[in-house]
């Protein structure tokens, strides 16, 4: 489980191993081109942690290049309806995209898009997350950074938790998340 939390402790993000593997594969396939998609999952019982169970590939109408990505929308509405109606009842949690460099800073376009999403009632997500993946300088390990965009507040970075921090905060127990 890949877990993060804001410094103030109010917001958390956990990404299940399967979703992390999917993200890594999609980034590897993209090579030197940006790519992205949406994050789908659920919230912890106390609603403080978004738990990602699925990272989608880019919709077919997405546009991409070496230094830009515009996520399309084809098929997303139907996907969200199916996820909502499923036994697990999962939700839209935010966006992810890949920078084919070591730069994992959100661009002004990223910030504007996420601010728009948190205020767009059609998303039903007042605190969307943005996960940016990038290449490490030594190409040994993928670099990830996450941000939360709470409606009415400035965005905040979610900082990676160590295994010890996750256990001490009660964030993980076996393979399940606890508040």
Question: Can you offer a commentary on this structure?
Answer:
- This protein is of the alpha+beta class and 179 residues long.
- The chain has a single domain (2-177), classed as 3-Layer(aba) Sandwich (Cytidine Deaminase, domain 2), CATH 3.40.140.10.
- It has 4 helices and 12 strands; from the N terminus they run ββαββββαβαβββαββ.
- The chain has helices spanning 17-30, 76-85, 108-119, 163-168; strands at 2-5, 12-15, 35-43, 49-55, 63-65, 68-70, 91-99, 129-134, 143-148, 156-160, 172-173, 176-177.
- Strands 1-2-4-3-7-8-9-10 form an 8-stranded mixed beta barrel. A two-stranded antiparallel ribbon has the order 5-6. The protein has a two-stranded antiparallel ribbon with strand order 11-12.
- Strand 7, helix 3 and strand 8 form a beta-alpha-beta unit.
- It is globular.
- Mean pLDDT is 87; it is low at 170-179.
Helix content: 10-25%
Oligomer: single chain
- Number of distinct beta strands: 12
| Domain count | 1
| Overall mean pLDDT | 87
Alpha-beta classification: alpha+beta
Q: Tell me the major beta sheet.
A: 8 strands, mixed, barrel
CATH homology superfamily? Cytidine Deaminase, domain 2
Radius of gyration, CA atoms, in whole angstroms: 15 Å
Strand order of the largest sheet: 1-2-4-3-7-8-9-10
């Amino acid at each position: 489980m890949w877990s993060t939390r804001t410094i103030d402790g109010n917001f958390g993000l956990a990404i299940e191993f399967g979703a992390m593997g999917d993200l890594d594969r999609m980034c590897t396939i993209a090579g030197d081109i940006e790519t992205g998609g949406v994050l789908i999952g659920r919230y912890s019982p106390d609603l403080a942690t978004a738990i990602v169970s699925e990272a989608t590939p880019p919709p077919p109408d997405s546009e991409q290049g070496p230094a830009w990505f515009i996520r399309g929308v084809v098929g997303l509405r139907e996907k969200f309806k199916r996820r909502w109606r499923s036994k697990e009842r999962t939700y839209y949690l935010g966006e992810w995209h890949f920078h084919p460099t070591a730069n994992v800073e959100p661009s002004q376009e990223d910030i504007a898009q996420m601010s728009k999403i948190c205020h767009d009632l059609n998303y039903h997500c007042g605190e969307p997350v943005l996960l940016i993946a990038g290449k490490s300088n030594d190409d040994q390990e993928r670099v990830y950074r996450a941000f939360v965009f709470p409606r009415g507040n400035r965005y905040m970075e979610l900082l990676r938790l160590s295994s010890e921090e996750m256990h001490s905060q009660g964030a993980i127990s076996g393979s399940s998340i606890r508040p």
